[in-house]
UniProtKB/TrEMBL annotation:
Keywords: Chaperone, Hydrolase, Nucleotide-binding. PANTHER family: COBW DOMAIN-CONTAINING PROTEIN DDB_G0274527, ZINC-REGULATED GTPASE METALLOPROTEIN ACTIVATOR 1. This is G3E family GTPase. It catalyses: GTP + H2O = GDP + phosphate + H(+). Coiled coil: none annotated. The keyword Nucleotide-binding applies. GO terms for molecular function: hydrolase activity; nucleotide binding.
Length: 357
């Protein structure tokens, strides 16, 4: 018996449900079934609403209840049986899943890959607004402040979500490009944030002018590698139109207090930065570095002894109008000096990040 072919699935993410509608229409044909998840009712009723439709019209609808725990986790858990049922009906040869505005592609795709062997992720498409993109990437407004949080524990900010949606996408649809005086610059910004992505502009009606579905572009390993930990071998795009990406490395550890004091200066002018750093007072720990907009965060990644790398610092930062020399000087000033390397008891240094990670 010949094994049944996997059903390709295309995932659509993006903050604006209004802008995604023309893109969603472009992703749908006579052989496609569409699952749309909305979060309009989440703040008031604690539910995510979903609907299933195809070219003939509505098929089914319902709600997922979101409690006080991780809303994204509950959404993913609830979607699995729904998608399984659609595949089992065998009425369509393509699925489009339109995620709620605050959903990141990465955790959703990871579950689809591991839990649904009958589905093959084909394309991850992200809709971005040319008018609001820089603002969304540069601020510190929390999703909760905009009524977009996926549950009570969701403390992400808009910049963090926007960056992560872009970084995992095979295709970025740049809508409202006709309303921007610097559309080419925004294309370069997207390419810096995700060299894997293909940027497709939309026309005045919001319809994409290039392929956004059934591209076969999704590569799980490549997507995970880019969205995960960055290393010095990662690609750094050429600067253009004022968009610059800086790669900073050091084999010396960072002084925790000086780093904490410099955080605001480090993220000034930086749209997005990610990396792995080495703190002097935590000599065995690999520390994740991440910033989006005006917010920076650090967290544990494990032990240096668990990797093939010697302890080091690597940060990749992208900005618009960013001064590479200034940023590198600020980061360099946070490192232990030669005399501190020789004379300090590193683990006695104050830890401003205690209780944070």
């Amino acid at each position: 018996m010949t094994a049944r072919a996997k059903t390709p699935l295309s995932l659509l993410v993006g903050l604006s449900t209004t802008l995604r509608e023309p893109v969603l229409d472009a992703m749908t044909d006579a052989t496609t079934v569409v699952v749309v998840v909305d979060q309009d009712e989440l703040p008031e009723r604690g539910v995510l609403s979903w609907r299933v439709q195809d070219a003939s019209g509505p098929i089914d609808a319902g709600e997922f209840t979101v409690g006080d725990d991780c809303g994204a986790c509950q959404l993913i858990e609830s979607l699995v049986p729904l998608l399984e049922a659609l595949v089992a009906r065998a009425n369509w040869d393509h699925i489009v899943l339109a995620a709620p505005p605050a959903m990141e592609a990465r955790p959703l795709v990871a579950t689809l890959v591991s839990a649904l062997p009958e589905i093959a992720v084909d394309t991850v498409t992200c809709v971005v607004d040319a008018v609001l993109l820089v603002e969304q990437l540069s601020g510190d407004e929390l999703l909760a402040e905009r009524g977009l949080a996926l549950g009570l524990p969701d403390r992400r900010n808009v910049a963090e979500l926007t960056a992560r949606q872009i970084e995992y996408a095979d295709v970025c649809v740049l809508t409202n490009a006709h309303r921007s005086a610097a559309a080419d610059r925004l294309v370069h910004l997207l390419e810096h944030l995700n060299p894997r992505t293909s940027v497709v502009t939309a026309d005045v009606a919001g319809v994409p002018t290039g392929p956004v579905v059934r591209t076969g572009r999704f590569d799980f390993d490549a997507a995970e590698a880019w969205a995960g930990e960055l290393t010095s071998s990662d690609r750094v795009q050429p600067s253009g139109d004022g968009v610059t990406t800086v790669l900073w490395t050091s084999t010396r550890p960072l002084h925790p207090t000086r780093l904490n004091d410099a955080l605001e200066d480090i993220v000034d002018g930086v749209v997005r930065s990610r990396g792995v750093v080495w703190l002097a007072n935590r000599p065995t720990q690999r520390v994740r570095w991440e910033s989006a907009g005006y917010s920076a965060s650090l967290g544990m990644l494990g032990e240096w002894s668990e990797t093939e790398h010697l302890a080091e610092c690597t940060v990749v930062a992208t900005g618009m109008g960013l001064d590479p020399a200034r940023l590198q000087a600020i980061l360099d000033a946070c490192l232990l000096t030669e005399s501190e390397l020789a004379g300090l008891d590193w683990q006695d240094l104050d830890d401003p990040f205690a209780g944070v990670f």
